[in-house]
Structures are given as C-alpha cells and as structure tokens.
Design goal:
The protein is an alpha/beta fold. The mean pLDDT is 92.
Length: 310
Amino acid sequence: MHTILGAGGPVARALVTELKQRGAGLRLVRRTPAKPAPGAETVAADLTDREATLRAVEGSAVCYLVVGLPYRARVWRRDWPRVMENVIAACARHRARLVFFDNVYMYDPDRLGGMTEATPVRPVSRKGRVRARVAARLQAAIEGGEVEALIARSADFFSYGRPWSGVLNRLAFEPLARGRPALWLGAPDRPHNFTYLPDAARALVALAVSDRAYGATWHLPTGEARTGRAWIEAVAAALGVPPRFRRVSRTMARFAGLLNPLVRESVEMLYQYERPYVFDSRKIAERFGLRPTPVEWALAEVARRDYLGA
C-alpha cells in the first residue's frame, strides 16, 4: 500500500496519477473528508494528532509526506514539528518507509546559484528555519535507525491542474491567459529554474521503490535555469499571447502585503528571486537515469490541458 499523507494538493495529484499508472495500491490521507476516489482508499486524518496518524499509516508499505500547511510562519512553527514527529512515530510503529517531499527554504542564500544535495543549510527566513528543523529531525531519525526514509527536494514547481499548481502558474500562466500582464518577483534578469510536477512524481515513486535510495537526500529532476524574462516569454509562446509582464519589487510586495496575507508571508522569501537560483538535479540523473521533461514540452502541456481547451 502506497499512502499519500496530505492528499489535497498539486503534488499529491501528480503522485496519484503516477501511482495509478503503476497499478499500486493507494490510500489518500487528508485532513478533511474527501469524496471517494476510484481505485484508492480515502482516509480523513489530522496529522497533528498522534493517534489519527498512527491509524492512517497502518498497513502502508510506503508513505509520501507531501503536506501543504497554510502558508503562514506561525502555523508552520506550530504544526510542522508535530506532523513530522507523528509521521516518524507512525512509520516506525508500522514499519513503513517514508518519502519526504521537501523544498529548498533551508539552503544558504549565498549558495542558491548552484544548489546540490550538499549545499549548506543556513536558513534566513522564519519558514526556512522550520523546514531546516523538521528535515534535521528526520535525518536524525534515519541515522538513529528509527525509520527507513529519504528526503526528496524540489525547486519551485509548476504543473497542470487548475485552479493553480505552482508558482509559475500563478505568476505567469493565470494572468497571461486572462489577458493581463504576468508578474515576476524580484529581478527578472536572474536565472531561476522550476520543477515540473509530473517529473517530480515519477521520481518520487522511483525512489520509493528502490532500496538504494533510502538514507539519502535527492534533488528531483529539474530543467534548465532561465531568466524571469525568458520564462514569461516561453509561457506566453505556449499560450499564444504577447509576453507582457510587470516586475514586483520588494517594496511593492510589502505594500501589497498590507492587504493580502499570502503576499505578506511571501516577502521573506523574495531573496530567492533577487539572486541566481539554480537547482542541480544531476545526482538523480546519474544514479537513476531520471531526467526532466524538456521545458517547452512541459509548458505546452500545461497550456494545452488548462488553457487551450484541447
């Protein structure tokens, strides 16, 4: 049984597609009750509740922790450590392997121009410090023999599946498709790359079923880095619209954050768009042959599925 912990978001959607293609037994765990899903068992469980988490994991061979907590530092500080402790305990109790879908918030901001699995941890944001804490807790559990697990990290991601499936969807696809200018945070001439979620899902499952993947950290397959300006132009080309965009500076984001809580919580992460951001996934390509979908093909697929009606 493959169990997805946090089955309500875009990462889970991509994972469901991949696991169903493989014919895997599938359990979907989310905080609120969900409609029955064909070919899958659905379970409602609050992962901050130890007993509920134990029940949700029972009978699992592999658990994918892909929870998307509300994007607020206060909630992350309160809930992420509890979620990680409960999931580790449940996987240990039921001898389930654990695959943790992680991000790069904890990495040293001075090293973002060439991120590898060995990039130093030096978080400078509130949410980054939380992610560093929970990743360190899982690493300690791995090294201490509490649980068999791996950490799989993604860059900022995008995919198909509206209302939105990632940063690039919100910044570029959505506004351009509606006839409005795209937005770009920070500096539009700095390189940045994005993970295509179908590639991430394919890699997560490949890692999950491989004995040699456990006990390590892996960067998920991610394509080439391009400037923000080039990303806007490529998305516009996929949609068949002019590549108009507006730059959102840190000052503008702060003002917008007075009215929009999501923008307010994003200001501390703007450094990732103010300097080169190049996520290196050569390790997983060399060890497992897992490589990213070509960027133009991936962008065209998002446009076709979500916006062009084909």
